[in-house]
Amino acid sequence: MSARSIAILSGKGGVGKTTTTINLGVALTQLGKNVVVVDVNLVTPNVSLQLGLPPTPANLNSVLKGKASIRDAICTHESGIRVIPAGLSILESSEPLLVEYSDVLAPLSEFHDIILLDCGAGLWGNIAKAVRAADEVIVVTNPELPALIDALKSIQMVEKLRVPLRGVVLNRSNGSNYDASTEVIGGILNGYKILGNIPYDKSVLKSAAVRKPVVYYKPYSKAAQAYRKLAADIAGIEYRKSFLELIFGAF
Ligand SMILES: Nc1ncnc2c1ncn2[C@@H]1O[C@H](COP(=O)(O)OP(=O)(O)O)[C@@H](O)[C@H]1O
Ligand SMILES: [Mg+2]
Question: Is ATP-binding among the key words of this record (predicted)?
């Protein structure tokens, strides 16, 4: 098996990359895909924190330094996604990295359908290295000017690296007049496809408080439905609302 690897990035921090990565991962798992999420945010990692995962004998930092095997860094979440966490200590992010991302991803590729790379905020450096190892990229942003401008910088970096950009996810949309208009968003983002529109939803915060993905903990919430729709698009499967979704989604 050879997995498809997708890097999830944003210029600005706090826009919802990790939330999008783990929920996309769970939704793709529910569609029958074997998914592994790799926390390539080596400086301020938070995938394992957001999922409440126990410590593993190794992590991505030790694997990239050639000190451990990727097998010792894999952890499985109760929702079914597998996770490669990054090291939580600041000391672990400082030493030089000796192993290429492509070499880290190769063994994972054999046993998974999809590899999701949760990148840190910002541009170049480690993020560019991870993007180069990916087959395609999704940029996450909020429908607000500062986030959109930083998203454009991420888009320009991806274009320079010549990695296919699948499109943009608009997260925490309010659907209000305070969000940038569709025309403004399209103009700033060079007309790249909007793959998903995830509403601002308190269910995301409620789920984060108990360290669970919203798709898993509050499956009938508006955000969970939007993440499932996004996952269907990524998997190339037609999205159909279930009976329960039709009932609960009305509230
Ligand atoms: N659609 C949403 N609705 C409400 N809160 C959200 C939504 N998406 C993300 N959040 C919250 O926003 C904060 C930042 O999200 P996070 O995924 O950690 O961002 P990033 O990884 O880009 O730094 C978290 O507290 C998260 O729970
Ligand atoms: Mg994050």
Answer: yes
